[in-house]
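Assess this:
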Amino acid sequence: MSWFFNKRSIKKDKLFLALDIGTESIKALIFSYNNNDKKIKVLADGLAYLEEYMKFSFTELENESLKKSISLAVNNAVSILESSEKRIKIKKKWQVFLGLPPNVLKAKVVSQSYLRSLPNKKISAREKDIISSDVLESAKKKISDNFLKNFGILSQDINWISLKIIESKIDGYLVPSIVGYEGKIVEFEIIGVFLPKNYWQSFDGIFNSLKLEIKEVVHLSEALPIFSKDRKDCGIFLDVGADITQIFVLKEGRIIHVDDFKSGGRLFNQTLSELWGLDRETIRTMIINYSKRLLTESAAKRIKEVFSPDKSAWAKSIKIHLKRIKNREAFPCFIFGGASQIPEIEESLKEIGDFDCRRTEVLSLKDFKTVEDENKRLNNPQYIPCLLISHIILK
């Protein structure tokens, strides 16, 4: 692939590509990063929709379709970059921060404990390594066993993206590191990010053929704490996609819970499609206009009536999954993703009595203090996951 860049910007900043592959569409952001000001500058964006019934079964036909959609999203971003100012043509192998579909890339938070035989002895760096190795291996087995139970995939067929300790306690007290402390019971919260090996091999092959270098695979559970580092958020973050809603719970900026369920914007889209026989593009435009309150009063009222059963179904699912959160507190909700703009999503959250979801906010660009939108184009919540993915560069 050939790309156009400004010589001055190449010398000053490093350029990267963030890609968010969802179950319905692919979003691309070309951004620069400067170590001096620690700012992510979004230079261009691109969007491409997947084939309507993409199942991610990675057949030869699907792989070719996926390659075309990835290329289109990247090329759409490059076109904006080309038109922004005079540029010089060079060849570049992109370094990509990659987000994969939530039905492909999984994350799980598990608890592990370790009983020390010499509780009065301070933990050395060497003992810390021994304890960490033990609990990480146990966590990997726990996550693998759970994945086998739910999806029938063996541990040897899992590709681990990351496995790390995110919280440590000694005898019930939270500590930044266990080194130098005494105590008997050491407790850990551990997060694992993983996907089936055959899925990884397929994506790796697709990106190699497109001459795109995967710098890092990013799960939103890893990106959200970086975004929240200075804010120290306590809240429920919901990525409402086309087919899957992902749930992330942060407490004082730390991830404590990850979950998802199969329901999202396509539920509402299909209702309109089945009722009125409209094509995908017309339905997308109609829902955008409905969300922005641009329709006539009678048209908006009719859609609201049509969406009522879907709203109830989504609300029932989210309530079930919110109840799974351990040590639930009155956290506010922050929603993003393409389907988050549908009014029924926010209304459902405000109507849940068990949580402080009456304070619900839609995440937008203004919440990203380290991001500058050079072209003032990122006004759609479907780009928020891609923005979060780009934040991994700040870790």
